[in-house]
Design goal:
This protein is an alpha+beta fold.
């Protein structure tokens, strides 16, 4: 890997040709239905559509491909589109089928989320707090130790439905995308109950069924605390430069070298490419990134270390949910005395706040045992 990474920063020596009036264009309120957002950016002039930056919007034309000519790509199938179209809007559009009671959702939360967020959303270590904070958004943390605002799902978030998308795609942190749609509905219902959110004036009970129709009726306390930023309105009112443009000779390009010596070197030999062509070394062969030196314990230790970082370090490197920190001998001494077979069983089947296999059920038992050996060896 190159020792230095060059980055270009453009510095303009002449006067900055921007309008001084940069008033932000906001509309009051934050409508939940994007289909009715007030787009005002496109205007008509002399029979032509003009975009907000002054560009003429031309009608799309279909380019015909002659027989035998190369054509890139094919039309996406509905199934392929559905695989990528997983976002959920504030009005609930995009929520998939599924449902679960709050009681069941509490169990899913305990098995997948509590290790970082606490059993009741109070947060563990530096992980986000999900519950509480109502009435704190006006707090001002100055210099006298005053409490600042506590931003949680119940106190700060404007809408609940986009959380389905986030939890489904990104959580749990060690094993994202493992949760089913039913489980995500249950988790959200449990969090709404903990935050004492009412729907249609009624409390959320343990037997309340959470599904798409239910979430569309939820209004969080801070829904009106946000204003809609109309991105179709320009921040400035300058016209596009179409002639007499800035003389590029008055621009100075400065190259700043950043020392990247400590960058991670790839662990496998991969040919390096530039614009699709392999970078050749002096002997006419494709240049190969140098591999990392083999660890003292052999390839097995390297694989265990990588698996540990991917599935276990989230808790065992920070002490989240009471997990013993790898390398802290005093925290591991009593556990090591129990014997490796006991540690293996706890790691594979789960123990106290730790879910089975650390939440990564794709790990094989032998892989889990190797991770345990790695953590024990690092903590003796």
């Amino acid at each position: 890997m190159s020792r230095f990474v060059a980055r270009n920063i453009v510095v303009m020596t002449g006067a900055l040709a921007l309008s001084a009036s940069m008033a932000l264009a906001y509309d009051k309120g934050a409508p939940a239905d994007p289909n009715h957002y007030p787009y005002h950016g496109i205007v008509k002039k002399d029979g032509k559509k003009i975009n907000i930056d002054g560009a003429v919007m031309r009608e799309r034309t279909n380019v015909k491909i002659k027989k035998g000519e190369l054509k890139y790509g094919v039309n996406a199938t509905p199934k392929q589109i559905a695989g990528w179209n997983v976002d959920v809007r504030p009005d609930g559009k995009g929520l998939p089928p599924g449902q679960m009671t709050v009681e069941k959702g509490a169990e899913v939360f305990a098995n997948n989320c509590a290790m970082c967020h606490g059993d009741f959303g109070e947060g563990v270590g530096k992980n986000p707090v999900l519950v509480g904070g109502k009435g704190t958004l006006k707090n001002q943390a100055k210099t006298g130790g005053e409490d600042g605002p506590e931003k949680t799902l119940g106190s700060y978030a404007p809408y609940i439905t986009p959380f389905f998308w986030y939890i489904k795609m990104a959580m749990p942190l060690p094993t994202p995308k493992k949760l089913t749609n039913d489980e995500v509905y249950g988790i959200i219902g449990y969090l709404l109950q903990l935050n004492e959110i009412q729907v249609d004036g009624k409390d959320i009970e343990d037997d309340t069924v959470i599904n798409a129709d239910f979430l569309k009726k939820v209004h969080l306390p801070n829904e009106k605390g946000f204003i809609y930023n109309n991105l179709r309105k320009p921040d400035t009112h300058n016209t596009r430069c179409m002639k007499d443009c800035r003389d590029m000779k008055k621009w100075t390009v400065m190259h700043i070298k950043i020392d990247a010596t400590e960058s991670i070197t790839p662990t496998v030999k991969v040919p390096r490419y530039n614009c699709g062509k392999p970078i050749m070394n002096g002997e006419g062969f494709a240049a190969i990134e140098a591999p990392l030196p083999a660890p003292k314990g052999g390839a097995g230790d390297a694989a265990a270390a990588a698996a540990y970082k991917a599935s276990c370090a989230g808790c065992h490197a920070s002490g989240a949910a009471g997990a013993p920190v790898v390398g802290h001998k005093d925290e591991w001494a009593d556990r090591i005395k129990q014997g490796k077979e006991t540690l293996y069983e706890h790691a594979i089947k789960g123990f106290n706040g730790m879910p089975p296999k650390g939440g990564n059920m794709s790990l094989k038992d032998d892989q889990v045992k190797a991770i345990v050996d790695y953590m024990v060896n690092k903590s003796k």
